[in-house]
Write a structure and sequence with these properties.
Length: 275
């Protein structure tokens, strides 16, 4: 049997890949195999990949909402759009959790022209710039033109010292971050030119999905117990992560929800954070 990806590409359906993704979300191998068995009668040749995901997600949610939230992590990252504003703030949180000082949306004068930098980070003696590329489609990839462009900006900015973190320093490092994936040529160029890349699955075992699970910095957009409107309301209050939701005072205040719903949301959140 074959499935149709959002890009229109037709690929073979991989049972093992589905089971692995369910297990990675926290489901047991037994439950993952049971979910596959239960959705198989609804699968057909040419079925859209997002429909397969939806069927598996629904079954997983009935077993564990927290595991379903982890399973929907990639979708949750994409829901930090559509402009990428919240994605930039989310990436800033990831750097902060790794011990960096962070400043967002900074205007700097390069040797030739001025630049708006998405994120500036500092750790020990190193000052770095971080540029974010947000895609609204999960099948979109960041191609080689983007790191080429970012490198030209980095080369202009690292020619002179900038005074941001209370002292003049040279920007010595540059990251390019995307919520999707990089093409092979983009990775090849970045590795050759010294740019650091971060995407959903790159570097290997250190991509966004790995960092999120390691630091438990889950975006609120992956929670299954919140509506889309409630997620947007929380994002507007700068409640970006599940940790923020559980620890910021009055984070539930503007939601105006019942005690029972609040209890369910807190239960799912605690299961995510205490895995």
């Amino acid at each position: 049997m074959k499935i149709k990806k959002k890009s229109g590409q037709i690929v073979p359906f991989d049972n093992t890949k589905l089971i692995t993704s369910l297990v990675n979300s926290g489901a047991s191998v037994t439950d993952a195999k049971k979910i596959l068995q239960e959705i198989q009668p609804q699968l057909y040749n040419g079925i859209p990949s997002n429909k397969v995901y939806a069927l598996a997600f629904r079954k997983l949610k009935s077993i564990s909402k927290a595991n379903a939230a982890r399973y929907s992590l990639k979708n949750g990252i994409f829901e930090l759009g559509p402009t990428g504003f919240y994605f930039e703030k989310f990436i800033s949180r990831i750097f902060e959790l790794q011990g960096y000082e962070v400043i967002t949306n900074v205007f700097l004068e390069g040797r030739c022209v001025s630049h708006e930098v998405d994120i500036l980070v500092k750790k020990n003696m190193y000052l770095g710039m971080v540029e974010c590329k947000f895609h609204s489609s999960q099948d979109a990839k960041t191609d080689v033109k983007v790191p080429m462009y970012i490198l030209s900006r980095f080369n202009d900015l690292n020619k002179k010292a900038v005074d941001v973190f209370q002292k003049e320093e040279i920007i010595s490092t540059c990251w390019l971050v995307t919520n999707s994936k990089f093409t092979t040529e983009a990775i090849k160029f970045a590795e050759c030119s010294g740019l650091k890349l971060l995407s959903w699955d790159y570097p290997f075992q250190a991509g966004i999905k790995d960092v999120v699970n390691h630091y438990k910095v889950y975006p609120i957009t992956c929670l299954t117990t919140l509506t889309a409107a409630e997620k947007e309301l929380l994002l507007l209050q700068d409640i970006l992560t599940v940790y923020d939701l559980m620890h910021f005072q009055n984070s539930f205040h503007k939601l105006k929800i019942s005690e029972n719903r609040m209890k369910r949301i807190k239960e799912e959140s605690n299961q995510l954070l205490n895995r």
